[in-house]
Write a structure and sequence with these properties.
single chain; 193 residues; mainly alpha; P1 Nuclease; 8 helices; 56% helix; globular
C-alpha cells in the first residue's frame, strides 16, 4: 500500500514520480539529461517485483539460494536472480532478446491484446500511476519470487531449479513489456510540458 510503504515518496514509485514531476517543471533545465536517466532507471526498477517487495529481507537481497547461471555461473541472492539472472538465462544477446520480446506485443503476439490495458493506467502522468505499477510489482513479488516450484519458501542455501527460472521467465517478460510500453508515455508527458 503506497501510503504505508512509501512515506514521503521515499521508494522506487515515489522516485519515479518525483523525477518525472521535476522534469515537467518549467524552470527545470540544468540536469535534464541526468534526470531523464533517473526516470528511465526508476521506471525499470518499479517494474521489477523485488524492488517493491518485503522490507524485512530487503527485497530478496538477504535470501541467498544457490543459482548457477548457465552463461557465467555464480551464487546469487534472490534479488539478483530476479534483476538479471533469469533474464541472462533466456537472453544471450540483448538486441535479439529485445526483438523477440517486441514480437510478443505486435499484432498476433501473445500479449498484443494486453498493451492497451497496460497503458490505461498510463494516461496522464501522476503519482497514482507509479503507485499502481509498484502495487503490480508487489503483487507479483508476493506470488512468484519467494516460493519454489514445489511451493516451498526460499531459505538461504536452497537451490533454484531451471524449472523455477523457466516458469518465472514469463513473469519477468510481462514486467519488461509493461515497463517498455509505459516508458514512452512518461517521456511524452515530460516532452509536452
Amino acid at each position: 500500500m503506497y501510503s504505508r510503504d512509501c512515506v514521503d515518496d521515499i521508494c522506487v514509485s515515489g522516485a519515479t514520480s518525483n523525477y518525472t514531476r521535476l522534469l515537467m517543471s518549467p524552470e527545470h533545465a540544468d540536469t535534464v539529461k541526468e534526470d531523464i536517466q533517473f526516470v528511465v532507471h526508476f521506471l525499470g526498477d518499479v517494474h521489477q517485483p523485488l524492488h517493491c517487495a518485503r522490507l524485512n529481507d530487503k527485497g530478496g537481497n538477504l535470501i541467498s539460494p544457490v543459482y548457477y547461471n548457465t552463461n557465467e555461473g555464480g551464487v546469487w541472492d534472490l534479488h539478483q536472480i530476479w534483476d538479471f539472472g533469469i533474464i541472462e538465462n533466456h537472453v544471450s544477446d540483448v538486441s535479439e532478446g529485445g526483438d523477440r520480446l517486441l514480437e510478443e506485443v505486435k499484432e498476433g503476439g501473445r500479449w498484443a491484446d494486453d498493451v492497451d490495458v497496460w497503458l490505461e493506467c498510463s494516461e496522464g502522468f501522476d503519482v497514482v500511476r507509479t503507485s499502481e505499477w509498484g502495487q503490480e510489482s508487489l503483487d507479483y513479488a508476493l506470488a512468484y519470487p519467494y516460493v519454489n516450484e514445489a511451493g516451498e519458501e526460499f531459505k538461504n542455501g536452497m537451490d533454484v531449479s531451471e524449472m523455477y527460472a523457466e516458469e518465472r521467465w514469463e513473469v519477468v517478460k510481462v514486467r519488461l513489456l509493461q515497463g517498455g510500453a509505459r516508458l514512452p508515455r512518461i517521456l511524452d508527458d515530460i516532452a509536452v510540458k
